[in-house]
Amino acid sequence: MTAQPLAAETVVVAPTRRPRFRLTGTAVIGAAMIAVVLLIAAVPPLLPGFAPMRQDLGSALLAPFAHPAHPLGTDSLGRDLLDRLSLATSVTLGITLAIVALNAVIGTTIGIVGGYVGGRVESVVSVMSNVTLAMPVVLLLIAICAVLRPSAGLTIAVLGCTWWVGYARVTRNVAASLRRQDFVVSPLTQGGDTAWVLTRHVVPNVWPHTLIIAVTDISTIVLLESSLEYLGLGVQPPIPSWGGMIFDGQKYLGTSPWTVVAPGLVMFLAVAGAQFLSHQFTAEGRGALLRKGGMS
To answer: What tens digit of pLDDT does each residue of 172-228 get?
Structure first.
């Protein structure tokens, strides 16, 4: 009776574990802040009379709670501040998530390829990371906007292709350490396909690190994007954005401060909530690395 060779699937099992996220006080506070921001973006469009672009000069600069139809007041053109804040929240968060997702995909892919292949490919990835890191992103976007018309798509394209270095460096180190592990080498020695090894054993060990960086980057991208919108380099009027609303309301800061406080407060909730969650994700990631190091 001859022994039959076992398939790679039965011999090799990648030691991956699903990340566990504990609900600490910091995480609850961060989640509550993010929930408030999401409610501001989701609820007003469902209410009757939602019209963020409708102007009414006779109702300009109404104070909050002064009129039942405008609970947060109006801006200088009589547009409902809650409606515009809701649309601005959706726009800003949508652009932010698009930028973070694009950077995560680009950086993780480059990092995995460079770390897994190694050699000259890893050196090229290192040079690309250093060159990209040296680019002045804001000045680059200003120069591009001087040639092309500023838009949300242009902001996503520029920031989405220049903020991937952190993802690439971390995933490159992880992939470089994984390529020498037994559960990665064994399938290859038994004739396994490289793509199968990457998707089954390398990527599942890399994506938790990508998730931690992505959550951490959200607050940074929100602030950077809002700054660009304040400078007029992002979403163009009449579509509202947090930075654009702050720019428009600063003219009336002395008499109608709510036109600036409202978008600034929502931005604060988004950034602080993302920071609290990223702190928890980072702590969980460090704990997982320590546990893994202790088990090895």
So the answer is: 988 888 888 888 888 877 777 778 888 888 888 888 888 888 988 999 999 999 998
Q: For residue 268, how many other CB atoms are within 10 A of its CB?
A: 13
Yes or no: domain 30-41+79-295 corresponds to CATH 1.10.3720.10: yes
Q: What are the boundaries of each domain within the chain?
A: 30-41+79-295
pTM of model > 0.70: yes
Q: Which strand (E) or helix (H) includes residue 7?
A: none
User: Phi and psi dihedrals of 5, rounded to 5?
Assistant: -65, 135
User: For residue 189, what are its two tokens?
Assistant: 């020695």
Q: What percent of the chain has pLDDT over 70?
A: 87
Name the amino acid, one letter, at 261: V
Name the β-bridge partners of 67: 70
Coil, strand or helix at 41: helix
Place of tokens 């092309």: 148
SS (H, E, C) the chain: CCCCCCCHHHHCCCCCCCCCCCCCHHHHHHHHHHHHHHHHHHCHHHCCCCCCCCCCHHHCCCCCCCECCECCCECCCCCEHHHHHHHHHHHHHHHHHHHHHHHHHHHHHHHHHHHHHCHHHHHHHHHHHHHHHCCCHHHHHHHHHHHCCCCHHHHHHHHHCCCCHHHHHHHHHHHHHHCCCHHHHHHHHCCCCHHHHHHHHHHHHHHHHHHHHHHHHHHHHHHHHHHHHHCCCCCCCCCCCHHHHHHHHHHHCCCCCHHHHHHHHHHHHHHHHHHHHHHHHHHHHHHHHHHHHHHC
